[in-house]
Specification:
The structure is a single chain. By secondary structure, the protein is mainly beta. It has 2 domains: 186 residues, no CATH class; 32 residues, no CATH class. It is built from 3 helices and 13 strands; from the N terminus they run ββαββαβββββββαββ. The strands form 2 sheets. Strands 8-1-13-5-6-7-9 form a 7-stranded antiparallel beta sheet, with no helix packed on it. The protein has a 6-stranded antiparallel beta sheet with strand order 2-3-4-12-11-10. The protein is globular, with a radius of gyration of 18 Å. The two termini are 21 Å apart.
């Protein structure tokens, strides 16, 4: 008998296209928790891009728990009662045709899919009989990432990483205040300041053969975190 676990939506962030990302590092207190410490369900960014190592694969990234200091990164964990779900629309109707479902339990991450969802919408049922990739969660002190690979060629990683999102918050505030008219161009002559330098995120990374995503020339991707 197939095991079914029903989750309800907590939060979600959308990303559309083959190389698109969205950022959301500061949320309401119910999501960020006290003292600006993000809960494990707080998604900061979603990335989807062609693998630079193998153009036959796509890479999907869900980053969570933004603005982690190095000391906070050492103790940060993924909650075990949360489903992280990547939704993939390959027909252009903004309804998920496939999902990749990630669960972290007992120090390991398991990525199911990509597989057709049990039912589209805000609620989710874990497709526990789908092929899956599994790996131990990489610790902050680890010298190298731990990556698991399924029999279908799907790879998965989970653990802390340097926040890749770049934003010059200082210049942004100057533009809003009317004391500047444009951002720095990032050259040596006109350097920008990364507000996220020195901070980390908890990352979930899945690499998938394109052949498992259908034949569409483009896909829509969005992610959700859901708790029981």
């Amino acid at each position: 008998m197939k095991k079914k676990i029903l989750f309800g939506t907590l939060i979600g962030i959308a990303a559309v296209g083959s190389i698109i990302f969205a950022a959301d590092h500061i949320d309401a207190p119910a999501v960020t928790g006290t003292g600006n410490v993000s809960l494990g369900t707080d998604i900061t960014d979603v990335y989807a891009f062609q693998s630079p190592a193998d153009n036959n694969n796509m890479v999907f990234v869900i980053n969570t728990q933004g603005l982690l200091s190095p000391s906070a990164s050492a103790t940060a964990k993924f909650p075990e009662n949360t489903l992280y779900e990547l939704n993939i629309d390959n027909t252009g109707d903004n309804v998920e045709d496939m999902v990749i479902q990630l669960l972290v339990r007992n120090g390991k991450v398991r990525a199911y899919g990509p597989v057709a969802p049990a039912a589209p919408g805000t609620g989710s049922i874990v497709v526990a009989n789908a092929p899956y990739a599994e790996a131990s969660v990489t610790s902050y002190a680890s010298g190298s990432p731990v990556v698991g690979t399924s029999t279908k060629g799907v790879k998965v990683f989970a653990g802390p990483r340097d926040d890749p999102f770049f934003f010059d918050l200082k210049r942004f505030k100057e533009i809003i205040a009317g004391t500047a008219t444009k951002f720095h161009d990032g050259t040596a002559e006109d350097p920008a300041t990364d507000a996220f330098a020195g901070t980390n995120v908890m990352s979930l990374v899945v690499e998938v053969p394109k052949s498992m995503l259908g034949s569409a020339s483009s896909i829509n991707v969005w992610a959700e975190s859901k708790s029981k």
